[in-house]
Amino acid sequence: MQPTDIRNPQYFHKVVDCQWACPAHTRVPEYIRLIAGGRYDDAYLLNWDSNVFPGILGRTCDRPCEPACRRGRVEESNGDKPEPVAICRLKRVAADHRGDGVEARMRERLPAPVSGAERFRVACIGGGPASLTVARDLVPLGYWITIFEADAKGGGFMRTQVPRFRLPEHVIDEEVGYILGLGVELVGNRRIDSLRELLDENFDAIFVGCGAPRGRDLHIPGRDEDTDRIHVGIEWLASVYFGHVSKVGKRVLVLGGGNTAMDCCRSARRLGGEDVKVMVRSGYEEMKASPWEKEDAEHEGVEILNWLNPKSFVHEDGKLTGMWFTPMRAEHDANGKRKLLPTGEPDRLFECDEVLIAVGQENAFPWIERDLGMEFDEWGMPKLDKLTMQSTLPRVFFGGDAAFGPKNIIWAVEHGHQAAASIHNFLQGEDVRNRPPPLTNLVSQKMGIHEWSYDNDISPDERFVVPWAPKEKTLTNIHQEVELGFDIQTAWKEAQRCLNCDVQTVFSKDVCIECDACVDVCPMDCITFTTNDEEAGLRARLTAPANNKEQDLYVSDPVKTGRVMVKDEDVCLHCGLCAERCPTGAWDMRRFLFAESYAGRGEDYSARPARKQVAA
Amino acid sequence: MTYLPKPKLHHPSLQKNAVGFTRRDYEGAISTLCAGCGHDSISAAIIQACWELDVEPHRVAKISGIGCSSKTPTYFLSASHGFNAVHGRMPSVLTGANLANRELLYLGISGDGDSASIGIGQFVHAIRRGVDMLYIVENNGVYGLTKGQFSATADQGSKSKKGATNTDAPVDMVGMALQLGASFVARSFSGDKTQLVPILKAAMTHKGASFVDVLSPCVAFNNHPGSTKSYDYVREHNHALCRMDFISPRAEITVDYPPGEVREVRQHDGSVLRLRKLPESHDTGDRVAAMNYLHACQARGEIVTGLLYVDPEAPDLHEHLQTVEVPFNTLGERELCPGSAVLAEINAALS
Ligand SMILES: Cc1cc2nc3c(=O)[nH]c(=O)nc-3n(C[C@H](O)[C@H](O)[C@H](O)COP(=O)(O)OP(=O)(O)OC[C@H]3O[C@@H](n4cnc5c(N)ncnc54)[C@H](O)[C@@H]3O)c2cc1C
Ligand SMILES: Cc1ncc(C[n+]2csc(CCOP(=O)(O)OP(=O)(O)O)c2C)c(N)n1
Ligand code: SF4
Ligand code: SF4
Ligand code: SF4
Ligand SMILES: [Mg+2]
Fold it and tell me: pTM above the 0.95 mark?
């Protein structure tokens, strides 16, 4: 193999599994250390820089970082159940324990205004996380931002879809408030019905963050009767939020296996549903809902039934009484593609009083005229540059669920960052595809012979569980938040489970005397000195086999004997024992900083001539 | 935070051996030796060898003397028996233990100071008696623990860290072991585990006195230019006599070598030592040839490593003494004082 080029920041960035997996590349291990150190404000602000909604995300994030977290891999075959660090719930700890001073400090860390920016006006359609992120990134630079939102308040689906027992409203008010407080104009109760009209209003750039607002319906026999008892899930959840719905029948069937289905069934349990069943076409494992959402629903007495395809609604005297389902099984064809087929067993009838249809969400852009020069693909989605989020109408950018279909909050935020950087370039007359360079740094953490500036001891603890409010409270009051958050002691212990994956093992081959001390001491058998080979050959004959191909091998230039040092990054604990054992300092533990840059940061734009205002 | 205990977490693929232990189960306390000490590598090799041999830790006794090398039994096999004897007295304590319980695997761990100076008399007699043991000298050419004085194995003309030249002739423990009748004699290097681990396995399964001299650089006091026991010097002057594979009695022999390229030695327990790249002229069953080879290499300034001599059928101390098959420590009063009738029988036989 070629020697690893550790000067390429992507190499060490990838070793920080959680940060690499986070769409917004939040500096996870750094904020976890700050929490362990009791520096909640700093931890909160670090999050706020990247993900804009730490309090909201600390409760609701889809947390792609956690399945990626190294802790889950290193605990494999080491104890009961391998579990990642509770990255998401630690984020909430930072939010819960932050002080009043954070808002003032936010302003201190914002970039300086760009001269002339106040001449440009940017419209954001929709007040969800995507638009709010665009606003947060652009307002400090001096642009004039107007958000048009069909509802009265900002927040988008975070406010109207995510139920209050998962996300209290004051959390949304605070974090949306921080952004509006920067001087963003929010025009509430204003639905945009025509993009043409908005373009005519002379905005220099437009960001479309209208989400994927349409719930998919299920057109099967009986759907059009007794429609007061058959609802589309996301419409029903919005009605619950607005208070139009406050109770539900005793027996409720929820159709679908995604997160919306989980919010529907859990809301139904709180509004009078006693016998609530989630009916899923496919198997339990392949359901779209996150594992923890399923667990939480089941914990609250919801039954999940799999391999049942809805066939028809049953009505008696015009009143809904039940539904027929066809038992299904999966079959893989010659190409390995999975198909669902009826098993041939008789259909099954399930009685019910009310049905919630949560079988998916769709994008809809009825308000975008098709003769504006904006191109759409065969599925009716706008054609976008995936890097810049720019549409084929140069002035118009997209992000969040409106861009590539329903995703989640953290993706909406990342789209917002990218779109904001693009809009800034666009307005400044720069190449829109230019990305502000990330801030990177690599600094030794050595303090003494066996002393490091981070806590390199490895906690043996298994993942801690977040305490819950008692069921008697949560199932009777839909506003009662279920999870209570870690207390400070538990948060500290959970933080200690983090392996500090951003503190990198850096090898200097020139001083290595090949004493093998690092190989012998490494608890995870990460290090090997061997003759060089092709990657597959090396992976098979290291001290321990390197079977996880998603994780890189760190290969050195030849050492004195002509062999190479090969380190499998996969399950390194970042414990620093290799560096403590090395007699010559050939291993060093260095903290790697990787911070994404946002619009107007990392580069001095103010010196450049601004782009001329777009003609009317 | 100083000197963490090694985290208990291990690689997910870590395997258990036939007796139910992982390699990590053969570890000991975290080493307090200098970082980079060759002795730590030898400990790691012992751990690896014991795991691969499916040794049950409670069937092992680690006996050592005084020195950094003699401290190492703390850093491996923490579930085994151990005895830290006074300086140079490991061999007599080991001999006594072996007489009391012949069923354990005895690891005599010593240093060049411990064995070639103060303990040289003890070394000599344990070897010539054929005590069933693996005697390891972790040879760094200095008294490491007392801060680097030349030991008796330091080569004439080699330089200390401060620049003083050693004028005394060295003791060659491999040559002595051959001459004293050790039935398994090898030399290796702490920096070459692919050679060291099979040698240790072969020596542990060998019945009789096995002696292994392991060059083990002292990073703190004897790893400088001018030393003949440094990592660089040993690597540059290493002459590997042969490569050896250890094939346990249970293992299937899978690789076929063309005849003439390998020679195999079957030990009394059924294990096979397969010797590769052994010079045509060398016979590992010929003690005189081994001594000649050793001296020839030495004259050329080479450090010969590998298995030099093995006698798979050698008798051990218990055979010499015609002791009972069972360990002495299991004999009760009934066996030891069989009564006046038996005494009369013995007396009658003597008359
Ligand atoms: C039930 C449910 C639960 C969810 N739970 C989670 C969760 O726990 N975690 C998570 O990460 N994600 C969750 N999601 C997904 C998440 O809410 C979305 O991915 C995210 O909010 C998308 O953000 P956005 O900015 O693209 O748009 P949205 O948040 O969808 O906001 C779009 C806004 O635009 C407004 N709007 C639409 N059209 C117009 C128009 N023409 N004019 C003016 N305003 C308009 C809408 O009123 C809406 O407020 C959930 C989704 C649902 C349906
Ligand atoms: C009776 C006695 N004399 C002297 C000493 C001092 N002493 C301690 S260790 C040592 C030499 C150890 O050398 P070696 O066996 O080579 O061990 P190393 O530390 O080099 O591994 C000496 C002389 C002692 N402990 N006891
Ligand atoms: S152990 Fe810590 S730094 Fe490593 S992936 Fe998990 S959360 Fe991130
Ligand atoms: S930090 Fe070093 S010793 Fe610790 S697990 Fe990683 S490679 Fe091994
Ligand atoms: S401990 Fe240091 S000197 Fe020894 S082999 Fe490892 S990197 Fe090289
Ligand atoms: Mg010594």
Answer: no
